[in-house]
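Running this now, will post back.
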Amino acid sequence: MSALNRVPSLMVRAGTASALTLAAVGGSVVIPGVASDAAAATPATKALKVAASKKGSPYRYGATGPHRFDCSGLTLYSFKKAGKKLPRTAAQQYNKTRHISAGSRKAGDLVFFHSGSYVYHVGIYAGKGKIWHAPKTGDVVRLQKIWTRSVWYGRVK
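Update: finished.
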């Protein structure tokens, strides 16, 4: 039995395991907003990791990277690095994704902010109700809690 297969039973016997214990038996420590190595195999989680790596990059309207981004520029750039092609704007990206329910969302899915039928913003879902996004002029790429219920979710095909 590999060390990875022993981690769950170790955690059950001990109740909890420290990061050092997990590392010693080949486990991993979860960092919020960043995909694990095992999960990074999918384009969506690769894109999430790319977006997270751009933390602190300045917002610039119309920018698609690699140093400055607007919201859809960040998602376009991140998915391109993960081997997937997206159109340029948030609304176009929404129209190119497979629409999913909030209950079906996974890390790496796109989160579209809307007012009525108008899509005005997009970010990459990081899990636990948070997204990586390029918010607005004067701000930077960052991890932020979703602040409204007026969102739709899309999975890149």
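The chain has a mean pLDDT of 83. More later if anyone needs it.
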